[in-house]
Design brief:
Order of helices and strands: HHHHHHHHHHHH
Radius of gyration: 20 Å
Distance between the termini: 39 Å
Number of strands: 0
Strand content: under 5%
Shape: globular
Helix content: 40-55%
Structural class: mainly alpha
Low-confidence stretches: 1-11, 32-38
Length: 236
């Protein structure tokens, strides 16, 4: 069966998995830990994957990112690891989430506020030790504790909701339908993406489709739209 939202996005599971903490790469790309097929390289045609040498590129960018983090005085190796992961999350992953939030909200005339992204709060909490941030073994430990006397118990103990994923089955069905329509064309995306990979996905049961597989469909459809809008000339 597919993974639940809590399993995949509960507090961003990579922060709480020792295997991911030990992986020398961006935590959201350490998919070999779970065996998930979420990386772009799993969808590209083999020739493109070989020509791009993605592993070397990713390793170089990871090395550059880690070099940006200064070690605090007296900090343990584990605390440093968690500081690095927090830095990667804030400077790489959150930027994508905020841009997506802006595009989705403004497309329907809404302006969304994100008070927990206030730079003063982020800078303050960033420097808090990881042991303090997870003192009770849960996600959002500091936030829950700070608001314990302000929120109803039902809100205070509520499981973290997934973002940017939705578990609405109609959304998965819509992705499958769009993917089937795409496979019926000679879309230029198939100059890059392995067509048989997408054909295998659309034969899966949407009710039990893992989120990482569904995310793969999203990325292929995104890439198809991007190619249609910008019409880039691609040379390898």
């Amino acid at each position: 069966s597919g993974e639940s939202a809590d399993e995949v996005f509960g507090g961003y599971r990579w922060f709480h998995q020792p295997e991911v903490q030990a992986a020398k790469t961006f935590p959201w790309m350490a998919v070999f830990v779970s065996g998930a097929k979420a990386q772009v390289s799993d969808r590209f045609n083999p020739g493109i994957t070989a020509a791009l040498d993605l592993p070397t590129y990713i390793a170089d960018r990871y090395s550059d990112a880690v070099a940006e983090v200064e070690r605090a005085e007296g900090e343990s190796d584990h605390e440093m690891t968690m500081r690095v992961m927090s830095h990667l999350h804030l400077t790489r992953f959150v930027r994508m989430l905020l841009e997506r939030k802006d595009r989705i909200s403004m497309a329907v005339g809404l302006e969304v506020r994100v008070p927990f992204c206030d730079h003063r709060l982020v800078e303050y909490v960033y420097n808090a030790p990881w042991s303090m941030k997870t003192f009770d073994g849960r996600e959002k430990s500091l936030l829950r504790a700070a608001t314990a006397d302000l929120l109803p118990q039902s809100v205070l103990e509520r499981t973290k909701a997934p973002y940017p994923a939705t578990l609405d089955p109609q959304y998965t069905n819509a992705l499958l339908q769009q993917s089937k329509e795409l496979l019926g064309t000679d879309d230029p995306v198939f100059d890059m993406v392995d067509r048989s990979w997408l054909e295998d996905i659309i034969r899966q049961d949407p009710a039990s489709m893992p989120l990482d597989v569904r995310n793969g469909m999203e990325r292929v459809l995104d890439l198809s739209t991007w190619l249609d809008i910008y019409r880039p000339e691609i040379r390898l």
